[in-house]
Each structure stands twice: as structure tokens, then as C-alpha cells.
TrEMBL record:
It comes from the Eukaryota. Keywords: Membrane, Transmembrane, Transmembrane helix. This is Dolichol kinase. The chain crosses the membrane at residues 85-102, 171-192.
């Protein structure tokens, strides 16, 4: 169990470092970004199929897909029709695969009929339909998976010391949601406002259940509109 926790944390840290290097690189064309998103999804799927199925690995792969695709989507412009259509196509095909409505087999790392993934994809699609700035969704792309990864890794390493404070939400996991929301808020606000939005986002993510992405996004959107 502890070994899985170490592996999960190391895998996620490596992915975060690679993402940071990618973001700091030279500006890329929309076509490059869209190709990178597709290649990332294919890479994760082939990686999942190349190894015996393991819940911990599938979990980490789901979160890497969530954050990695989010990173790419943040670089796209919702005012450009081709980029909106790309996001909608990725979302629609992924939803059909998740619910077994596509001739293409389900993702190896996905959970069948996953309501959370469906809500996430619908949220991003609606965001691009409304032509809202994708950077505002950064806490959804990073804070939500960070909470799951850090929470699960801490439970594997610390056991009962990582106490649950609400339903299946752990102290370390929720602290990660708060911290990553605070770091990734992409609009100007004071430190007090940033702290208040991050705390509200942490609570919303905890009580949101299968719709935690929508709850977190609602808090961030409200914060953006109010500050």
C-alpha cells in the first residue's frame, strides 16, 4: 500500500514538472496544442493497455488525463470556431466512450458510466460555448485532481493519520484542493479574496460528490464575477 502511495506521488510529481517545462517553452500554435492534447490522451491509453490493470495506476492515469488535457485547453481560444469544435469533439467522443455508446472501446483507465468525467466534459464544453476565458477553470483542472492524488497518497502513506473530515474527503486531500486553488486562481484579486475563494472551493469540492468539478467551478466563476 505504501509502495503504491510513493509511486503515485512520484508519477504525479514527474507529470507536474513536465507540464511546467512545457508551459515555460516557446509559444505554440493552436494546431500544436490540439495535437498535443490528442497525443497525450493516446499516450495515456496506450500506457494503460501496456500494463496489467491496477486500480492505483488507473486512478493516477485518470488524474493525469484530467490535468494534462486541462493544461492544453487553457492554451486554446474559445473565440475561434475551430478550437471550440475541437473541444466539443473531444468531449462528445469521450462521453460516448465513457457510457459505452461508441464503437470505440472505453478508455482502459476510465470508470464505466463515470458521472464525474461526464460533468467535467460538459462543463468545459459549456465554457467554450459561452466563450469564457479557459484560464478561469485552472482550479478545476489542477486543484480537483491534486486533492484526489495527494489525499490518496497520504492515506496510503499515513493511514488513519490522514483523517476523513467529510464523507470520503481527507484532511490532506482537501488541504491540497485549497492550496492548488489558491495558487491557480487566474484573475486579479486580493490575498483575502483569494483565500476566501480557495476555502469556499475546498468546501464545495468536498460536498459536491460526483459533481465536485461543477461545484468547484461555480465557486471560482462566482469569485471571478464578484471581485
Amino acid at each position: 500500500m505504501a509502495r503504491n502511495g510513493y509511486a503515485l506521488a512520484a508519477f504525479s510529481a514527474f507529470a507536474a514538472a513536465a507540464a511546467a517545462v512545457w508551459v515555460r517553452g516557446a509559444p505554440r500554435s493552436p494546431e500544436d496544442i490540439m495535437l498535443a492534447i490528442v497525443c497525450w490522451i493516446v499516450f495515456l491509453e496506450l500506457s494503460a493497455r501496456s500494463r496489467p490493470h491496477c486500480d492505483a495506476t488507473a486512478f493516477a492515469t485518470r488524474k493525469l488525463c484530467h490535468a494534462g488535457c486541462g493544461l492544453g485547453i487553457m492554451q486554446l481560444d474559445p473565440h475561434q470556431l475551430a478550437q471550440r469544435v475541437f473541444v466539443w469533439a473531444i468531449a462528445a467522443s469521450s462521453i460516448l466512450m465513457t457510457w459505452g455508446l461508441s464503437p470505440v472501446p472505453r478508455f482502459r483507465f476510465a470508470r464505466p458510466d463515470d458521472v464525474g468525467v461526464t460533468a467535467y466534459l460538459c462543463l468545459v464544453s459549456a465554457w467554450f460555448y459561452l466563450r469564457l476565458p479557459p484560464a478561469i477553470l485552472a482550479p478545476v483542472f489542477f486543484a480537483d485532481p491534486a486533492g484526489a492524488v495527494f489525499g490518496k497518497a497520504a492515506t496510503a502513506l499515513l493511514g488513519a493519520a490522514n483523517a476523513r473530515w467529510y464523507s470520503n474527503k481527507s484532511v490532506v486531500g482537501s488541504a491540497a484542493v485549497l492550496a492548488f486553488t489558491y495558487i491557480t486562481i487566474g484573475f486579479p484579486c486580493s490575498l483575502l479574496q483569494r483565500g476566501a475563494i480557495s476555502t469556499a472551493a475546498m468546501v464545495a469540492e468536498a460536498v459536491g460528490g460526483e459533481y465536485d468539478n461543477l461545484a468547484l467551478a461555480a465557486v471560482v466563476l462566482l469569485g471571478w464575477l464578484c471581485v
